[in-house]
């Protein structure tokens, strides 16, 4: 019997494999045991790279959110940034099976202090004239809207039913625009 080839496991490979498993099995099928089997390692090997499944889900959520934060670096004002961010976030959720659901239950990774993370999240809007508390509030509102909409949209039977009544894209745009235009001026 030939020896098994040595598999180099690192956090990036683990997260990529977790996304592959998510696409195939959905969030309910994503387990540490199944992930270990996919990577051809024993489950304890995963815990050298992540503390537990909650941390893994947090890292996956971070990777889902990341592209949305990169989309609008040259926005002309904070409202335009929020609109672009909201659209990009909805698209990011849709790119992954159960992406919105995963982000709704994920715990934030504890890779840095909360104050540092808050500054990073608020930074684009602070550069555009908002103070940090207001920036965080606006971002949280847009995330909540996009997350709720994407969850609603991903519900198969409800999606099919509503698809006969309305345009998901147009309704999302109307709601996002109403939300963002409703934020008071600086």
Structural summary, described in words:
By secondary structure, the chain is mainly alpha-helical. Helices cover 69% and strands 0% of the residues. The protein is built from ten helices and no strands. The radius of gyration is 19 Å and the shape is flat. The mean pLDDT is 90.
Strand elements, count: 0
Q: Helix/strand/pairing class, anyone?
A: mainly alpha
Instruction: Please compute the radius of gyration using only Cα atoms.
Output: 19 Å
Parts with pLDDT < 50 across at least 5 consecutive residues: none
Q: What percentage of residues falls in helices of 4 or more residues? A: 55-70%
Largest sheet: none
Tell me, rounded to a whole number, the average pLDDT.
90
Secondary-structure element sequence?
A: HHHHHHHHHH
How far apart the termini lie comes to 70 Å
Overall morphology? flat
User: How large is the count of helical segments?
Assistant: 10
β content, as a range?
under 5%
């Amino acid at each position: 019997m030939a020896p098994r080839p040595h598999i180099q496991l690192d956090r990036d490979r683990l997260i990529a494999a977790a996304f592959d498993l998510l696409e195939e099995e959905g969030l309910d099928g994503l387990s540490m045991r199944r992930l270990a089997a996919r990577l051809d390692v024993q489950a304890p090997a995963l815990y050298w790279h992540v503390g537990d499944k909650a941390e893994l889900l947090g890292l996956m959520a971070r990777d889902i959110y990341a592209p949305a934060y990169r989309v609008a670096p040259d926005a002309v004002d904070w409202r335009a940034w929020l609109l672009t961010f909201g659209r990009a976030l909805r698209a990011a959720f849709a790119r992954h099976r159960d992406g919105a659901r995963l982000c709704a239950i994920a715990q934030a990774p504890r890779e840095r202090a909360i104050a540092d993370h808050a500054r990073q999240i608020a930074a684009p809007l602070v550069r555009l004239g908002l103070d940090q508390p207001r920036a965080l509030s606006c971002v949280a509102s847009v995330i909540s809207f996009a997350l709720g909409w994407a969850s609603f949209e991903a519900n198969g039977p409800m999606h099919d039913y509503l698809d006969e009544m309305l345009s998901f894209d147009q309704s999302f745009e109307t709601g996002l625009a109403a939300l963002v235009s409703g934020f008071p001026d600086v």
